[in-house]
Write a structure and sequence with these properties.
Blueprint (H helix, E strand, L loop, with lengths): L2 H12 L2 H6 L7 H11 L9 H19 L7 H32 L3 H26 L5 H17 L8 H28 L7 H9 L2 H9 L4 H10 L2 H20 L5 H17 L7 H5 L1
Helix pairs in contact: 1-3, 1-4, 3-4, 3-8, 3-13, 4-5, 6-7, 7-8, 7-9, 8-12, 8-13, 9-10, 12-13
Length: 292
């Protein structure tokens, strides 16, 4: 099953006319879902459940990501009634996706999976509290920013470690973490390319850590000045540094894939890292070539 089919499969349970018409939803986590689905397909004890597990994980992740889009303190005068309604719908949409997750698993008698995913959600929320608290207090460096981002993306998927067997059980946590880190770096690279959400980007934390004292002071005082941030990102070669970090993490991910025991699985996973390779201008290196 490819990414499009997985997305369509999950969309059947997420589709709601009011949500579709009146609010924006986050990007579907097709990379991590495809990673989970593909690896589960090679686990004798879990292969028969892969469709259900991929769907419910999609629903939970979309619920979390939708709630993350809700502004903490929207300005009614600025957003107006339509804006406030959109915010309320994001909350309701996130809750709706979560309710679908519980319903599907309870119907299938997967009570233990409900518990595991619920515990993962609680842990993710604890990580978010710590992350946002550190950001607000300005007690965060660029590497910690990446680490927190990867933790938040990988949290749900780590709960499936128990579904793996043998070597896969040992490699799964590292595989998910490394893949999630690549996703975070790719997202940060796209922020710079599109010049969007710059005030909450890796580049800002990098400059606050590595910049001159004067630049750090100016950036701290003028965090909402997008033009200032753009000029500083260029001054400190943030795009090039992110590209180098993504190349490094992608290389580590490729090395990790070679430790898997199934050549077939390696071939099936290879397309999932293509976006990382393309973003950094690397030539395609297929698993077949590496395996000789």
């Amino acid at each position: 099953m490819n990414k499009l089919q997985i997305t369509q499969m999950a969309d059947k349970y997420m589709s709601h006319e009011m949500i579709r018409l009146h609010t924006e939803l986050p990007e579907f986590p097709d990379g991590r879902i495809s990673l989970l689905y593909t690896v589960l397909s090679h686990q004798p004890g879990a292969a028969s459940q892969k469709d259900l597990l991929a769907i419910v994980t999609s629903l939970v992740q979309m619920g979390l990501d939708t709630h993350d889009m809700v502004e903490n303190s929207p300005n009614p005068a600025k957003s107006g009634m339509i804006g406030m309604r959109a915010q309320q719908l994001k909350v309701l949409a996130g809750d709706y996706f979560s309710s679908r997750f519980y319903h599907l698993l309870s119907q299938a008698g997967q009570i233990e999976t409900i518990r595991q995913l619920s515990e993962a959600v609680c842990n993710i929320n604890r990580i978010k509290m710590n992350f946002y608290g550190r950001m607000k207090q300005m007690k965060l460096n660029a590497e910690e920013y990446l680490h927190f981002g990867a933790e938040l993306k990988s949290g749900l998927f780590l709960s499936f470690t128990g579904f793996m067997s043998g070597l896969y059980e040992r490699l799964w946590p590292e595989l998910v973490e490394r893949f999630s880190r690549c996703e975070v770096l790719l997202h940060e690279l796209r922020k710079v390319e599109k010049m969007s959400s710059l005030d909450s980007s890796w580049g800002v934390w990098h400059i606050l850590q590595e910049g001159t004292e004067e630049d750090r002071r100016i950036l701290t005082d003028r965090r909402e000045d997008q033009n200032l941030i753009k000029s500083m990102l260029h001054k400190y070669d943030v795009s090039e540094k992110l590209g180098a970090l993504l190349r490094q993490s992608t290389g580590q991910l490729q090395t990790l894939l070679q430790r898997l025991q199934s050549d077939k699985l390696i071939r099936e996973l290879q397309p999932l890292i293509e976006p990382f390779l393309q973003a950094t201008g690397q030539q395609r290196v297929t698993a077949l070539k590496e395996l000789g």
